[in-house]
Write a structure and sequence with these properties.
Distance between the termini: 82 Å
CATH architecture of one domain: 2-Layer Sandwich
Family: Belongs to the NPH3 family.
Organism: Nicotiana tabacum
CATH topology of one domain: Potassium Channel Kv1.1, Chain A
Protein name: BTB/POZ domain-containing protein At5g03250-like
Largest sheet: 5 strands, mixed
Structural class: alpha+beta
Number of helices: 25
Strand content: 5-15%
CATH class of one domain: Alpha Beta
Keywords: Coiled coil, Ubl conjugation pathway
Radius of gyration: 41 Å
Pathway: Protein modification; protein ubiquitination
Shape: rod-shaped
CATH superfamily of one domain: Potassium Channel Kv1.1, Chain A
Length: 598
């Protein structure tokens, strides 16, 4: 830490309670009151150094020779700073450090202690020492922190801006090349090493990383920290480093972000050092405004944690919309657990904030459509999407949406229009397989048995039956919760798939037979290979036979299903006609339409 010793005389003052006296033995002829502290001093050492004190003494001089009393209630730094000013005027030894130079510089300016009242006056001394302080990273941070005590005066003298510009210049430069000392937990790092007989015995300094300055500047107050971030951004710092510094600062001063408690229990113990929710809210809103806007610079996981905390702190709508837009910009990088944001409050319907997820998804799709319009192309299945959003990106989002729907589908308060809106937002080409959306639909139908037949039909139109895997098709064919039309579609497409597979097997079998005939003219070694291929052909034919049996079984099941349906329809019609003739109410509405699968 930088240090400047001023004065040469020994200590000539003593403090008794709220009284500060000079021990020279001469009677005091002036009393200076600053707050509750009184300084009993002599006029000559003071007026010879301070233009303001000279003026005040001349205005308050009394003809009766009584002691002059001055009140300096507005002096920067208060009584503590004036104590050092008095020592300077009397020539008493004291040390000028980064912790007191700012208050002394402001106090000397206030007291008009310029070179007009003596060479090497306090204004000159403190200004020269400040220039030395600005050359050192650690000392500059300490000086900037003390500016809080005399902020208006420090701003007027441009001390704050000079501190911030000095720190920003050092943070944007390569510290490994310039070898600036760095503050770690409030202390300077000892990078030196002892040498004995030419051998270094000290520990080697750790290599510097891009985040070396995060903790040092995190001790600054929010207004000063904000100005520093804006300065390093103007200085050309990489957005990733700026984002990292803001993440560090947010985690340090927003405890709600680090609390991993259940959303059902929003109460938590507050320590004396925990910022109030109002302070945390103000800090969070500032952090959101300062975060770089480029995609991928800030982790999506952190943005979602910030959004969840913003919901708890009830930030402004503009801040929430800002965060939702940032998450939507990089939704393809999110995980399901982070997207399950609980609903906050007592009048909510669903367990999770589904509306928030809908808005985030809308932001993503809006950007996807804008990028597609900027680079025109034909949007077809199995064709890559040209533009900023690739097919892989929107496919990941589609899987994320399907997983999210499966997670929130059991909620009985999850309304059908919201489910339909979320599922339908994803284009069909973004789902190579329909297993995810089928699983979500199945869970939703199970949790909402009161849906009408029309609603069941509508919800099943959200999936493409042709894209179901074999396992999903088998499950859907036996799913009693699905409408009959959907089951018929599943069976139809499964039959087409089996026919295609059988045709493929026959094609391979014919090619292998031709290959076997051609190899008959080759030697004994070729005959052995033909025998091996012959056994493979037999295996293939056996497999084809099995597939044909499965296909015939499915046909029989389908025919039984259709016949049963017809019988019930005929029975219900005849029953209705009989009831109408006898005057009894019709019971057709109670006739079952489909036997349940077991």
């Amino acid at each position: 830490m930088a240090l400047l010793k001023l004065g040469s005389k020994s200590e000539a003052f003593c403090c008794e309670g709220q009284t500060w006296r000079c021990k020279s033995g001469l009677p005091s002829d002036i009393t200076i009151e600053i707050g509750e502290m009184s300084f009993y001093l002599h006029k000559f050492p003071l007026l010879s150094r301070s233009g303001l004190l000279e003026k005040l003494m001349s205005e308050s001089t009394k003809e009766d020779g009584s002691v002059c009393v001055l009140q300096l209630t507005d002096i920067p730094g208060g009584a503590k700073a004036f104590e050092l000013v008095a020592k300077f005027c009397y020539g008493v030894r004291f040390e000028l450090t980064p912790l007191n130079v700012v208050s002394l510089r402001c106090a000397s300016e206030y007291l008009q202690m310029t070179n007009e009242y003596g060479e090497g006056n306090l204004v000159t001394q403190t200004e020269a020492f400040l220039n030395d302080v600005f050359g050192n990273w650690t000392d500059t941070i300490k000086a900037l922190e003390t500016c809080e005590e005399v902020l208006p005066h420090a701003e007027e003298l441009h001390i704050v801006s000079r501190c911030i510009n000095s720190l920003a210049m050092k943070a944007c430069s390569d510290s490994k090349l310039l070898n600036w000392p760095v503050l770690e937990n409030g202390n300077d790092n000892n990078t030196g090493s002892d040498v004995w007989n030419g051998i270094s015995t000290g520990t080697k300094p750790q290599p510097m990383t891009d985040d070396w300055w995060y903790e040092d500047v995190s001790f600054l107050s929010l207004p000063l920290y904000k100005r520093l971030i804006q300065a390093v951004e103007a200085g050309g710092m990489r957005p990733e480093n700026i984002s990292g510094a803001l993440v560090f600062y947010a985690k340090k001063y927003i405890p709600l972000m680090n609390r991993q408690a259940s959303f059902k229990d929003a109460s938590h113990a507050k320590s004396a050092s925990t910022p109030s929710e109002a302070d945390q809210r103000a800090l969070l809103e500032e952090i959101v405004e300062l975060l770089p806007k480029q995609k991928g610079v800030t982790e999506t996981k952190f943005l979602l944690r910030l959004l969840r905390t913003a919901m708890m702190l009830q930030v402004s709508p503009s801040c929430r919309e800002n965060l939702e837009g940032r998450v939507g910009l990089q939704l393809d990088q999110a995980t399901l657990d982070d997207l399950l944001i609980p609903n906050i409050g007592y009048s909510v319907e669903t367990l999770y904030d589904i509306d928030c997820f809908q808005r985030i998804l809308d932001h993503f799709l809006l950007l996807d459509q804008a990028s597609a319009a900027a680079s025109p192309c034909i949007m077809e299945e199995n064709q890559l999407v040209e533009g900023n959003q690739s097919l892989a990106s929107i496919t990941r989002v589609a899987n994320l949406v399907d997983s999210y729907l499966s997670e929130v589908a059991p909620d009985v308060n999850f309304k059908f229009p919201k489910f339909q809106s979320l599922a339908a937002a994803i284009p069909d080409y973004a789902r190579p397989l329909a297993d995810g959306i089928y699983r979500a639909i199945d869970i939703y139908l199970k949790a909402h048995p009161w849906l009408t037949d029309i609603e069941r039909e509508q919800i099943c139109r959200l999936m493409n039956c042709q894209k179901l895997s074999l396992e999903a098709s088998t499950h859907a064919a036996q799913n009693e919760r699905l409408p009959l039309r959907v089951i018929v579609q599943v069976l139809f497409f499964e039959q087409l798939r089996l026919r295609t597979s059988i045709s493929g097997w026959f094609f391979v079998s014919d090619n292998l037979d031709n290959s076997q005939n051609l190899s008959g003219a080759i030697g004994q070694h070729g005959d052995n290979n033909a025998q091996g291929r012959g056994s493979s052909i037999e295996d293939m034919r056996a497999r084809v036979s099995e597939l044909e049996k499965e296909c015939n079984n499915m046909k029989e099941e389908f025919q039984k299903l259709v016949k049963t349906k017809r019988r019930w329809n005929i029975f219900c019609r005849r029953k209705s006609q009989c009831n109408s003739k006898s005057g009894k109410p019709s019971e057709a509405a109670t006739c079952p339409t489909l036997p349940k699968f077991h």
